[in-house]
Amino acid sequence: MLSYENALEILNHYGNGAPWIQHCLAVADSATIISAALKEKVDFDCNFLRSATLLHDIGRYVTHDPIQHGVEGYKLLTNLGHHHEAFVCASHILYGLNRREAVLHGLPEKDFIPTTFEERLIPLIDFLIEFDQPTTLNKRFSSLRKRNSENDYFLTKLAEAELKATSFQQEINEKFGILLEDIIKQ
Questions:
Q1: Which pTM value belongs to this model?
Q2: Residue 148 sits in which domain range?
Q3: What is the dihedral of CA 20, 22, 26, 27, to 10 degrees?
């Protein structure tokens, strides 16, 4: 398993001081806060969550394309032998790509859909951080729509991702009495 320290080394090596690293650090910090709030309520791998959130956007070292950065992160981490974290890079994009979409974007022919609690939590936490600051899902999705207003495919998938993120946040709130938007603002 990839330790947080090793993940941080990879991030710093490939990020080379780029501003997007601040987003990755903020998402990982929020994952730590959320882990502390949830650890007594649900069984999940906090260490994996922290390491994977740190590397979820590692593909930005190649591109800032809203989909392709996940593909590039998948390729890099697969080549480095970190297969579960690589899967997260691809599956965090718009809350997952099905087999057909994966192939369309240059990924192997399989579903890249987050299914475990940790895999589902990573894109949600990502959507709750605008650059390096906590935000709400409403504000984040509004910002993403504005930034990608010319990309019809992305906007269609973004609407689907918004439903998944909102639904999962509501599920967490109902099951555990925790609203993640409030937890990370503290």
A1: 0.96
A2: 4-185
A3: 20
